[in-house]
Amino acid sequence: MANEEFKKRLQDKLDESRKEFEGKYKDQLKDLMGLSKEEISEITPDLVDIETYNKIIIVVKEASRANLSAVALKKNIEELGKIAVKIAKKVPSLAAII
Q1: For residue 89, which of 49, 47, 51 has the smallest C-alpha distance?
Q2: Is 80 helix (H, G, I), strand (E, B) or coil?
Q3: 87 falls in which pLDDT band (50, 70, 90)?
Q4: What is the number of H-type helices and E-type strands within the chain?
Q5: 74 φ, ψ (degrees, to nearest 5)
Q6: How many domains does the chain have?
Q7: Domain that holds residue 12
Q8: Rounded to an integer, what distance in angstroms lies between the CA atom of residue 60 and that of residue 43?
Q9: pLDDT in tens, 21-73
Q10: How many Cβ atoms are within 10 Å of 62's Cβ, its own excluded?
Q11: How confident is residue 97, by pLDDT bands cut at 50, 70 and 90?
Q12: Which of 5, 42, 66, 70 has the fewest C-beta atoms lying within 10 Å of its C-beta?
């Protein structure tokens, strides 16, 4: 039974991931994930920028999956703080929203 539960959870996650990458912000998500560690580290030299970058990815994935408005996406990124906004502005397709 545990194996069947695992397979179901895995399939659910795969379906969710597909929706994220096919959703409204698929281009922004691809561009964001294309940033190098060096580009992100230019903002601050510590791990805060990497942690924030990972949070932005989650926010954009969820916004894409849920088909949120650009205004809602912008608000969610801004709520992550100044570093998040700086990182988002490194991605032209997200900068247009911010």
Answers
A1: 49
A2: coil
A3: very high
A4: 7, 0
A5: -55, -45
A6: 1
A7: 2-95
A8: 20
A9: 678 888 998 899 999 888 888 887 677 788 899 999 999 999 998 889 999 99
A10: 16
A11: very high
A12: 5
